[in-house]
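User: Hello, can you help with two protein structures?

Assistant: Certainly.
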Amino acid sequence: MKVLVIGSGGREHAMAWKLAQSSKVQVVYVAPGNGGTALDARLKNVAITDVKALADFAVAEKIALTVVGPEGPLAAGVVDEFRARGLRVFGPTQAAAQLESSKAFAKDFMQRHGIPTALYATFEDPKAAHAHVDKHGAPIVIKADGLAAGKGVVVAMTAAEAHEAIDWILGAGDGKSGDNRLGVQHNAGVARVVIEEFLQGEEASFIVMCDGRNVLPLATSQDHKRLQDGDVGPNTGGMGAYSPAPVVTPNVHATVMHEIILPTIAGMARDGVPFTGFLYAGLMIDDEGAPKTIEFNTRLGDPETQPIMMRLKSDLFDVMMAATDGTLDQVELQWDRRVALGVVMAAGGYPLNPRKGDAITGLPAEQPDAMVFHAGTTPDKGGAVTAGGRVLCVTALGDSTKMAQQRAYEALQGIHFDGMQFRRDIGHRAIKR
């Protein structure tokens, strides 16, 4: 059978790589794909991004299953378009994708359905937003309401940083639009900011598959959002990740399912917006093991997907078919008992002004216990050049977090591109535990 994966990042490379391992899959098309998917003989890049053109392609090629990777096409209604054509597609509808595409929608939803989250307020008026910060002080969290590729969040440790973030997103209240240097796609064409209380604890990623009724949890994972070693520097889309996450103990897992995931799926159904697809709850877990929801994503995380796919032993194609048949309750996932850890190699200037067009050399061949997933790359003369902020995710398996970490850093030693930056401490929290 033929499969289509929509997207161009590391998450899509990892999903396509895993889907191609199924004996039932003849070819995996990736639209538009990247330099890594172009180098894999089992995958074929398709230079299409338009929603209707993607559906036309799926009809013409008799695609058996389409999986949507990134948030942009979901927010643009790609699932609605495919379903209207009678095509099998895994992902949330445009209405359900608002859990990610609008932070204000998500916070209002959580409040309405009693899902634990940080206290918050939403503003369109800069003066009111600044007054809120003056009243509550710092640390405080400032979020752009819209899609920002994982970079629309400022954890402000001082009031000055919070005020600067508000000006950045909303403008200075002088009638002009905000700088919008992140290129945030705001809902309804209006710049909005969500201001939240600062939560203490350890972050983790909790990702499940949903078929509208049934929920299937994936292996737990944890990523590193800050740019530099020691978890300092600006927030990014993620500089590395590992699976499993020791902070998600069996008790925490049960609490998250009972208090966050299942009420979210039930609440969406009750609101007339049944949720299908991957649901990602970004959690903050305090010292007592009590989780709160920082955010929802309506797709797999990146770079969490890369370690998760490395550990998945089940046939992903079979799992996706069950998910689109509404029979996830009949699926039991099999996982490699080892730890998987991925280190992101980012372009110079990332996250604000990433370099592009630098040649990548020294890419190692795929190994049974190590794989280089491409994210921000494009094909070039039989190789690849940089094309975005997060360029590669070098992912490896090991019997412990320490061994997986060691293997991943060994695998990236020969890779080079000008200006490259990566953290040298991915997994440090799990190793400390």
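That covers the first. Now for the second protein you mentioned:
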Amino acid sequence: MLKRYGMASYLMGATAARTGDEMSGPALLLVGLSVTGSPAAASALLSGITVSAAVGGPVFGAMLDRASRPGRLLAGALAAYCLALLVILLSLGRLPLPFVLATAVCGGLLGPALAGGWTSQVPRVAAPEGLPRANALDALTYNFASLAGPALAGAVAMVSGASASVVVSLALIALALPTAWTLPRNPKAAPRGASRPVVADLASGFRAIGRTRPLARATLTSVLSYVGVGMLVACTPLLGEQALGATGSGTFLLATLAAASLAANALLARRPGLLRPDATILGSTLALTVALLLSATVSPVALFVAMAVAGAGTGPQLTALFAVRHREAPERLRGQIFTTGASLKITGFAIGAGIGGPIATWSLSGSLVTAAGFEVLAALAFWALSTAPTRAQKKHTHRPTQETRTSP
């Protein structure tokens, strides 16, 4: 059974932070497009606030694992992320674009705090026997945020302008500060002065991901898959303009995707035994391939069907990814593995967002077909890591038998 009150508080804080985070990306995309008039500049702004996650995530995770009060560290990261959004909003159109992009890159260092930083704390607020259900509920907060964030960004932008949507997104993140501050202590944190250097912990975390086959396979597959997702998100304003008549309408396509994800994960929260984590990760990439090819038709009906198909795959993928990490991560490296995995996914998303906008200015359908190609690449990576022999198998294969050693 879940620790009812602790988990309820956690879910409220995580939902607010993640909704603000999911809203901030589309809001920055819309405000960048409205101020600069350039899809490439708008996608560069979105890419900037996500691309640095690969650096910030592992370091933040290592610090989170070492902190006796991880919630206070998390709260500080949320506050700094809010400040970065505010600076971007106030400087866009008033200061040179390179300065704005540099601010976005600095803020992006803290992006993993809104994702893996929360999830790594789930075992401290849920009883061990309730972890599978808590894991599904935690994934539901992502799905709800993915549903509410883009839709809210589009709605606020239509009513009050793109700048207002950025303000609302940072306000939601700020609402999560009290919950983050009061998260439980880490009883296994090393005393001050007794812990290893941060660099040593970073190396251990990366080794754990690289040497544990299920972790490596899930991480690589999800990162490649998110390149395609990033391209899709970068295309949504143009999809909204061409298929639905307004750039802001593109956020409702993302809301459709999130609604399907929410429905799929709601089923898993009720029946967590249905999940087969490793197979689900592969299935989600195949679903996204079909969805992206369907969306390349730029037909209104086909677009909404494509988003529903994509959501039905990506929602369970996230739950499956959490399940693999909780199953395989060593306890002392749990925070780092979650934030590192999240940061690598965010970086994959950033790469997709960065290339999706420029390709879309040449051909919108071509950008979506390219995104589908990354999903195929993700599925091939999963297959390759499933069939390649492990290090132990290689040693066994090349170890000479007694007959070989003694034969003339």
